[in-house]
Amino acid sequence: MRDIIFFKTETGRSPVEEFIDSLPSKQAQRVAWVLALVEEMEIVPTKYFKKLTNTDEIWEVRIVSGSNIYRILGFFDGPNLVVLNHAFQKKTQKTPSQAIKTAEDRKRSYFSKE
Questions:
Q1: Mean of the pLDDT values across residues 55-80?
Q2: I want to staple 6 with a disulfide (CB 3.0 to 4.6 A). Which of 14, 30, 68, 86 is the partner?
Q3: What is the pLDDT of residues 3-54, one digit of tens each?
Q4: How far lies 114's CA from each of 6, 45, 52, 107, in Å?
Q5: Is the pTM value of this prediction over 0.70?
Q6: Residue 88 — very low, low, confident or very high, per pLDDT cuts 50/70/90?
Q7: Rounded Cα gap, residues 34 and 17, in angstroms
């Protein structure tokens, strides 16, 4: 079992929660369903959760809802805590390098606060 938390900025904003809240209800439900899989399944299929190569240990939650593709990026804090820190709608085949950079920057910020 894993626990998922959402990264908060220094001002207390949660970019991932804000992103999910901006989605239409049906898509937000799909996101919640995939997040539940990540929390509950011991081995999550890579269709839903996988480590990004050539990153600072960044993982992506992968959501498809109809023709919409969403990604939520994050990292592990210990073996069972997933900290999700960046979300976006995917429009290209490759994960944008700026999205990865944002996730890596927020990861550094998270660990510097501990």
A1: 96
A2: 14
A3: 999 999 999 999 999 999 999 999 999 999 999 999 999 999 999 999 999 9
A4: 15, 31, 24, 11
A5: yes
A6: very high
A7: 15
CB 27 within 8 A of CB 19: no
Backbone angles phi, psi at 86, to 5 degrees: -155, 140
- In CATH, which of 1.20.58, 3.90.1420, 3.30.70, 3.30.2310 is domain 3-113? 3.30.2310
Q: Where are the domains of the chain?
A: 3-113
> Residue 108: phi, psi to the nearest 5?
-60, -40
Q: Is 82 exposed, middle or buried (0-12, 13-18, 19+ CB in 10 A)?
A: buried
Place of tokens 């992968």: 62
Determine contact, residues 36/114, Cβ cutoff 8 Å: no
Nearest CA to 85 out of 22, 4, 30 is that of 4
